[in-house]
Amino acid sequence: MNIVFHGVRGSTPCHCPEVQRYGGNTSCVSLLARGQAPLVFDLGTGLRYFGGVLSNDVAEINVLVSHLHWDHIQGLPFLPQLQRSDCSVNIWAPAQQDGRTAHETLDAAITQPMFPVSLAAIGANISVHDVEPSMWRIGAFEVRAVDVPHIGPTLGYRVSLDGRSVVYISDHQEPSDSSQFDPKVLELCDKADVLIHDAQFTDVDYVGREHWGHCRIDYAFSLAVSAGVATLVLFHHDPSRSDDELDAIEAEYKVRGLEFGVEVVVAREGMEMKIPCHADAHA
Ligand SMILES: [Zn+2]
Ligand SMILES: [Zn+2]
Which CATH number is 2-281 given? Predict the structure, then answer.
């Protein structure tokens, strides 16, 4: 499996000299394995860059959406493959609490007057599936979804292939007792090869923002240690977080990770990670 990071910011895209190295696009990560259609986590503005380098013979793209906040769906109408009538885009997203399906909610966001074209008129065959916490297969990928504390219906995903696992938890509300972990979230992360996790706030930034739906980097690290994951990828950076700050965070947590046997990496646009697995080795 090859993991590629196309957008690593939370909340809103950003663009200034201070964020150039890590990048300013919002959440989008792709998972590629030989013989499998690309599997994408979230539809943030990084999606446009994912689609831009995809081979022309790709006729199917599968997407796991964590939740429907702007920073996780804004890239959808800019996916180049939506212009192709021979391409299918299959989206799984959490069921909504207001009675609307995820498809109806996306339709309502991508339409006039907020957007010049309605989603249905864009082109490709888009299907949107409502997801409750469950397990299912997408090709050879085994997918598991659980509820994650955030603001509104939000899912975390574990994708496994040939015994190797990637967990994606983009937005995660830290509990008032930061020594506690949601049991389902902890189990989802159990001994994962890679955990891609919300790293929105430093301890200082967190003060006064305790109910914004996110966590401190330290909480993400504690979760990774408690779940015994091999590699923690700090993700969904605050748009105000500069490259220099992220360098310092990575340096600090790499040292702390050595003590607990967890490799810590700060996500940046264009970063690729390879997880050796059977399907790759024999392709
Ligand atoms: Zn977000
Ligand atoms: Zn959110």
Answer: 3.60.15.10
